[in-house]
Design goal:
Glycosyltransferase; two-stranded antiparallel sheet; five-stranded antiparallel sheet; 51% helix; alpha+beta
Length: 356
């Protein structure tokens, strides 16, 4: 099968229209975007699919998705890890990177639409979410991955989760600045988190086996802007042969012969962030073989057993495809969000205090 090679300025709108229609058809009338019809949703993947709708110009549907999420926010600013038909599904914990991700989605939608009313209405939701997350930050900078049903921190941190939060804090800071309500403690918290991710590996995976076998721990610090420049290139080169299956995609982890479409899309954007467009285009070109006739995309492929696995076509995988295609082609005004880090700055008053 020939691959889909994308160039700047040539977003494959007709080819990807069925993918957008799949997300729209799965979205409920209330705005929730479950993984697939009849399945559960979670705040992170719901937001990933909503961003795809914004890219495709389905702005009303994207707004419904964000307003649905806002309507489910708990009093402490968090969300349960999963929902089904609008109700909590096995409410045993609340995950910090899931909670923070709404900031990324809201800023993404604003970059595309310039809808200031939307930004103003959703800002209180974003603010409560970020404050919940920052309450889980230690003095060393890392952020606890979750709290249990009673709100007690789980007591450890994830590299991938904290990297995602690092990007969400960037977006949250930009929202606050755009609305002339700067949040300097968010800027400082992000700096501390970045320092922990770059320089304090002992603060992660303290109570379980290291997660370094997962590809997301490898590329997410690059995708989120934690590691940039030559260091980003070196990081991606160092473990390329462990995770990348030529002609197929990116493995989810080293120990299982399984490539996944979403991780391959995220690796595509991480490569763009590192300035490696050639390999980004190549990796994405391999993925068209995992597209079904209805425009949805399979989760992944099991190399040894030669089968699609699991038997699922999630909306968040479809969302990742749209985000990667947008990043490769520069189609939307938010195409740069995951490929360029725009550092938040302290407000003038705080900057003056820092200099004095």
């Amino acid at each position: 099968m020939s691959g889909l090679y994308l160039s700047r300025g040539l977003f494959p709108e007709e080819y990807l229209r069925p993918t957008i229609d799949f997300i729209l058809q799965t979205q409920t009338s209330a705005g929730e975007i479950p993984w697939f019809e009849g399945g559960h949703s979670d705040p992170w993947d719901h937001t990933e699919a909503a961003m795809a709708l914004s890219i495709a110009g389905e702005h009303a549907a994207a707004r419904r998705a964000y307003h649905w999420l806002a309507s489910k926010q708990l009093s402490d600013g968090s969300w349960w890890r999963a929902y089904r038909n609008g109700e909590p599904d096995n409410p045993d914990r609340r995950e910090s990177n899931y909670v923070a991700y709404i900031a990324t989605g809201v800023w993404h939608h604003y970059l595309i639409t310039q809808d200031r009313d939307f930004l103003e209405v959703l800002f209180p939701t974003v603010e409560r979410a970020i404050e919940f997350v920052l309450n889980l930050q230690s003095d060393a900078g890392e952020i606890d991955w979750a709290v249990d049903a009673d709100g007690h921190p789980k007591g450890d941190a994830l590299v991938t989760g904290c990297s995602s939060i690092f990007k969400s804090l960037e977006c949250a800071c930009h929202i606050a600045t755009e609305l002339a309500t700067p949040k300097d403690h968010w800027v400082l918290a992000r700096k501390a988190l970045g320092l922990a991710l770059r320089c304090r590996p002992e603060r992660f995976d303290r109570t379980w086996a290291p997660k370094s076998r997962y590809s997301m721990d490898w590329f997410y610090p690059v995708l989120a802007g934690v590691i940039t420049g030559p260091q980003a290139v070196a990081r991606l080169n160092a473990r390329w042969d462990e995770f990348v299956e030529t002609g197929l995609g990116c493995r989810c982890e080293t120990q299982e012969p399984w490539v996944t479409v979403a991780e391959s899309c995220e690796l595509t954007m991480a490569l763009l962030a590192a300035g490696d467009r050639t390999r980004a285009v190549e990796v994405f070109s391999w993925l068209s073989q995992w597209r079904d006739a209805d425009g949805a995309w399979w989760t992944g492929y099991q190399l040894v057993e030669d089968l699609l696995w699991p038997d699922e076509k999630p909306t968040w995988t479809a969302g990742a495809i749209i985000l990667a295609a947008d990043a490769l082609t520069g189609h939307s005004a938010a195409a740069h969000l995951f490929t360029q880090a725009h550092e938040p700055v302290l407000s003038d008053r705080s900057a003056m205090r820092a200099e004095s």
